[in-house]
Batch of 3 targets.
Target 1
Amino acid sequence: MPPVFPMLTVLSMFYYMCLRRRARTATRGEMNSRRAIESNTRALPINVEIVQYAKEVLDFSSHYGSENSMSYTMWNLAGIPNVYPSSGDFTQTAVFRTYGTWWDRCPSARLPFKRTPSTFCSQDYVELAFEEPVYPTAVHILETYHPGAVVRILACSANPYSQNPPAEVRWEILWSEAPTKVNGPQARQFTPCIKQINFPTNLIRLEVNSSLLDYYTELDAVVLHGVKERPVLSLKTSMIDMNDIDEDEDEEKYGCGMDALNKQFSIVTLREWPTNGYFDKLPYELIQLILSHLTVPDLCRLAQTCKLLHQHCCDPLQYIHLSLQPYWARINDTSLEYLQSRCTLIQWLNLSWTGNRGAISVSGFSRFLKVCGSELVRLELSCGHFLNETCLEVITEMCPNLQELNLSSCDKIPPQAFNHIAKVGSLKRLILYRTKVEQTALLSILNFCSELQHLSLGSCVMIEDYDLIASMMGAKSKKLRSLDLWRCKNITESGIAELASGCQLLEELDLGWCPTLQSSTGCFTNLARKLPNLQKLFLTANRSVCDTDIEELAANCTHLRQLDILGTRMVSPASLRKLLESCKDLSLLDVSFCSQIDNRVVLELNANFPNVFIKKSFTQ
């Protein structure tokens, strides 16, 4: 029998590298910190350090504030500090939309994608432009409330103020770390040890993960330190620790370059061994199951080892669910072209955050969907600024089975383009948060997409009459389970009445920062009586919410799990006790800035109802 050792050797080496990488994960942070600390001690040329605050906020994934205001918005990160070194909840800071794990425990929560690498944990981002391109020596992040959300800092080679865009846009990770719990909400200056890069930058990106936080993180300013001339390393940098050299070094060096991932996707010449060893005896399905635990880059690397594994790694069944969001900086038209033949059966596709600054073209995206869109059920395109009307038209034509579409923060799509979505009558989930969808298009979508179960219209500022929209929902969206109307400015008790009468399956309703709703009209009482299945209700910043509303919720919505009544002046401790006694499943109660609920009351309620997270924010 021909020898099987060469095949086994290849696989042994592959799994050895995987195990070695996993075993070294715990120490890589220490090594990176050590390298960064050493780099700070290396000799620099005679070069004046430039210190600059962000000039402009270029892009972000979400924010707590309104599109027509500065309060709690990402735009507050531009310029000098407004709050620091003070601690507390201040409107002049930058705040993302979510915190904690509450959003993962409500009816609108989405299932995660498999194969997401453990090193990618980012949930939100913000990109900042500075006046002068520099070689970074330090980045200071001024956090004023519940710090600890920043998990990654990146630098970009593109100059946002240059008239000549570069041929290639490179992103380099300056610092990265898993989410950590910070004790206390007090302000701090966060200055991680960053690595040196070989190009000047004036575009910095912060990525955050707020899952471990007890409340919204608030950022005040970002300070970039750097020099105009590239630092010259001292001679001791030539002394390299051999233990530091492994495959992860290549990922750090090329991790955000376009070519690296594309080379992994490409087809290479493979040697055919006389026998495949024990793999010839394994069922095809078992090998497929084993390979399903690899990340996409690892799958592409393994495909280059031999023809048998190439066949398995390129099987479309390995790409039924595919998330490219973790590799957003590396995905371009070439990447999609390489993936086409593997994604003919794809059902879930996540392209969120990808394609910006010309990386993905309209034609490249269209070609991919024309080949791979027929079986798509779920399509995530959050912050996809390359999208235009042509892209939406292609989606509706090429994806007849589409049930979930996420266009969150795709604020470059023109208003008229949203009319095409009405052609996808099978839609069950539609996320239009921070888009320019207009009333006419939305009415058409509601009329033809009667299967909708989850709809997000948060911060959609171009809708003129939310009462008309609510009336259409009540008439057409009988299966609606979750509805996000965060910061809609003109819905009244009339629209709420139509909504509550027609959408009685609602389990989640966000009416946060809707100033035209007044408790005196009976709108909240009507909600409580008509929607007994409510599990999440946000009435954030509605000062008119009163004891009667809370008591109606206690009597009718006993399945309630999350309630936000931040800012009300009319709710007493007695009504909250009734609510907590009645709603046994309640896990989140936000009473921040509720004037009748002081810290003493919160401590008492926490003692009597220990399973409920009762949040009381403060300002110093």
Target 2
Amino acid sequence: GAERSGGTMASESEAQRALQYEQTLMYGRYTQDLGSFAKDEAARLRLQEGDTPRPRRPSELLEYTQGRCAPCRVCALQCQRFLISKVGEDWVFLILLGLVMALVSWAMDFAIATCLQAQKWMYGGLDTNVLLQYMAWVTYPTVLITFSAGFTQILAPQAVGSGIPEMKTILRGVVLKEYLTLKTFVAKVIGLTCALGSGMPLGKEGPFVHIASMCAALLSRFLSLFGGFYENEARNIEMLAAACAVGVGCCFAAPIGGVLFSIEVTSTFFAVRNYWRGFFAATFSAFIFRVLAVWNKDEETITALFKTRFRLDFPFDLQELPAFAVIGIASGFGGALFVYLNRKIVQFMRRQKTINRFLMKKRLLFPALVTLIISTLTFPPGFGQFMAGQLTQKDTLVTLFDNQTWAKQGISDEFEYLGILEAWHHPRSNVFITLVVFILMKFWMSALATTIPVPCGAFMPVFVIGAAFGRLVGESMAAWFPDGIHTDSNIYRIVPGGYAVVGAAALSGAVTHTVSTAVIVFELTGQISHILPVMIAVILANAVAQSLQPSLYDSIIRIKKLPYLPELGWGHHEKYNVRVEDIMVRDIHYVTLNCKYRDLQQVLHSTKMKNLPLVESAESMILLGSIERTQVGALLSSQLSPQRRLLTLRQKVLSEDGHRLSDSSIRFQISTETSSGSPARPALRKPLKPALKRVPSSPPDSPPVGSADHSGIALKSLFCANAATEPTEVRAWA
């Protein structure tokens, strides 16, 4: 018998080993082997099933199998099902995302251009009276900014700001409520259109990343009706990563730079499998965006957004590289100063309690006041004549990227084809003074304007400031070398527009801590002739800025205190050796399952923590979860409410009438399910299972129920919100 049992055990173990070996055969195979292996397994399972009846034709197909055209009807229905199932494919989703975002971008640009044209029309129509011109110039943007701030605050306050800091947090796995909803999408689009239509130094690149992410989230919810795989959280994160690329791609018509910029800005670790999604959606979106411009007769064909015409045979001389390096280093310091100034403005407004309290009551006063100040300073007949105040951001970039030299030739009849260049000409000052005043004024104006509680970004204003700084250096070089730098008896004049391109890429890269701004500049201008100077300047600017300040988005994350762990900057690498035990708080207040009311009150009074850890007991210290402080207060008020006490007294009277009990004790039960006489308790988000531990009844020396401590009520009855739990027995002593 022993041998037989031993043999049986040996055969079972061999069978288990064979089964385990068979299960591990499929691992380590190539794709072709896996395919054949799956087919063999399917055939083997079909043979094992034997003579199982074949599935009947679905009942919805029975009505189509009768009549002359039965095969056609069945084929049409099957094609319909096939198309509906294919709606859930990635490429269809990405095409829809790119198409919607291109339409949104084009419609917003059209509305913004209309608003700016209306302001110019009002300003030009009142040229007989300077006072009326000033009132129109100031009132128009103030009304638009005030409407944008009020509309956003009422509909969805989450739409305020850039949106890239929130997307960085969401892509890290943190759930931010109401940031990817339809009402936030509507508030962001309308608020951003009004904010940019006012002419304030604000950008659209950051908000468009947020808008594309919201569009992707809404499309996922819609397409989940056709396939449940869109409810997968990992898949939604991948689609959000692709949407961030679409936002930049349709904003600047720069798909390659958009993908790289979205990777640098939003992702710490990027899955390579999302590469094709981002490029496909961004390319399709940029294509539709430019096709719409051709359809609206804004362009003759699909061209770059800010087309430049620099010479290609000799774009720059090697002796100009030190000047480009100076632009990069200076832009690094300027970018760090911009981030520092923006953060200090926000902190100053928050630390001044009187100002903060006043602005909290008058929420629309701060944006209106900032808009009034900036509009007054940019008024063209006033101080704006020294800083090209009448130009929009697009016109400013077009003039700064011009390939002519202003300092040598001035503003002559040669520039009639670009009449907007007259804004840089002033009879009582030269172009250098105008550029310096423009850079200094726009610098602090942009840092102040980006703190307004409206949907806005900071990339485009910084881009314009960098272009102006590069233009200033280029004009200075052209003035120092009027005939260009001589090389082998050939004279090539200096092109200041190339310096403007380098400065724009360097300063925007320094503020955002990205290198992909170089690629965005190449796609914006349509020329790659200055690739070497641009890369040198962008890398130097990043090296300087990263050593001084965090990026603008990380700075906003710190200001908003979002749950995001930023990267360590230069000079802080020794902090990689810091352990958790070095920074954790050891003397922490906690709640146990056996905690009495007195202990719970003591914990609530002794700490101000928003979440309290829940452990099994003080001896084991096994963490069971956590509970919010507000939920503890709500549960206590529900358990110890006057209605609950009245119910307890009624049960006591009924028990005295129905049973003869001694004067020493009375037993009653409190059910965890809310009775009809007591108010409904607020349900916990994730209630703990009541089977963790059964709390014994309180000792005989505990105080009465009506006393101050109420120690007879165990904490378990507070945390167990499941209606199926057994009633917890509590002893009260009369």
Target 3
Amino acid sequence: MAQDTTVPKLNFEYWLDKAIQWGQATTLESQKDVCLHLPQLQEFLHQLYETIKHLGPTVAIQQFPLIGQLLGRLCWNPFVIGYDESQKTLMWCLCCLYSSEPQNAVELKANSWIRSLLCHLLSSSKWESNEAETSTFISALGYTSADYYCHLVKNMVASLVTELRENQFNGLNIQESISASRVNAVSIFCVPLITLPDLTPLLETLLLYHGGSSKEILSSEFLEAVNEAFLKKKISLSESAVFSLWLRHLPSLEKATLHLLDQLFSIRLNSLEEVARVIEDSLLPQAASHPVIFRIVNEIFKNALMETDGTSEVMTIIQVFTQLFVQAHQNENKQHKFPLKAYFPYHHQPLVRALVRRPSELPTTYWSQHVKHISDMLKALVEDTNVSSLTDLFEIWFLVACFGEWLDIAAEQLLKAAVEPDPVLWLLAFYYCPKNENQQRTQTMVEAQAVYSHLMMLFTCTDLSLEDLEAAVHRVTGIEQCCNQRFTTHLLTYFLLFSPGGHKIAQECIYRITEITDTSKEVYNLLIRTAYRFNHNGEENQRTVKLLNELLQKLTLK
């Protein structure tokens, strides 16, 4: 509410006259006079701030028509802004005059003028441009110009941070709390100066600040600018500040996710360790521990997969992200950990729990049993009459695809004869051909079973030639349906990796398949996924790892 204020009580005209007399304190006489009056001036500015902080810009200007002239002159006086808390008080007074929702050209112009004053107060480069006018004062203190303004910025930022934090704890005291419009104004004033290193504590305090308003109190321009600077690595922020930024401004989260995808598409996926490093550096897997962030990021990945027609590169990126998310979620403090249902609210929870189990959590002897359990649950879901739409089917498929590590383990267990074949063949057939229109999945199963049977007859042979695999290769290269071709290529590639005699002919065989079928990217992504799994779980022998590296190098050169 507006408060009754009398100008004489504040000696407004007196201090305006003084400000005009002083100018920018360029003469020795004016400098001495400023110094003599600084304590009283600071008291006056504090009273002025207490008077106008609840008025709103329009009422404040009505009561003090010349307030802009007074504050503007004082902001350019180096002795005034260098004294104690005068600079901070001037800043708060300017915030009180800022219109968060300007209604006309006059208010827009006033906002622009206020922003320029705040930039002047905060930017050391602008202060240093007035070095000739301030050198007397700075030299008297024994500082260089750069040192002086560096300390000035740090002190001002520290003061603002303290005030915002105290207000956060004192939010129920309405008379003492900072209004949302003034916090909004401060956020706008920070926009031109976001990359200033000394401003970082204030940026983080603003990002973590939550007033009593149900609406967002920080300006969208500020949130967008902070996100842009963070993504371009122009600033460093704490994880909590980044997570708060993405939670309170979802367009920034979307931009961060798309920025990550652009980064990964622009580099050659030489190893998934490199992919994992880039993804972890983005902080998105860690931020995804909050269910809202996870579901939004997951939705963006899903759209990217559909827009690229399900390319293996995008699927591999999603699978690595999911592994890193699971790791971050499991590392969360139990008191703050969300249940899995918060991340996958519409999915069959037993299936979710089975997929989330990391292979390293189970003995290798239990892998085959776990894979069969996943397949049985999935088949029951897919064949349920309630799953009638393609959308429902796609959602189930995407869930399984995100945890692709279990699919690769399923194919490995299948070829090592460590599992009952039919459930695993069905699981892989569903992954490569989720729709069963015109018996597509059934046909995929028939093709895969034929290739699998042929490979198993040769699995124990230690002396294999390409001619021995001719039938299997012919089946792979002769298949017209893409999903069938990818499935059987997966089986044949793993046969070459895990069979005793497959190593000798692996390069020649894979070269022939990828030349004829144009599946080099598919095979390459399968191999780097496998290498990544071996490096993390360490369950395979060095001979297989060496072959993997040779095959990857061959495909890279190709």
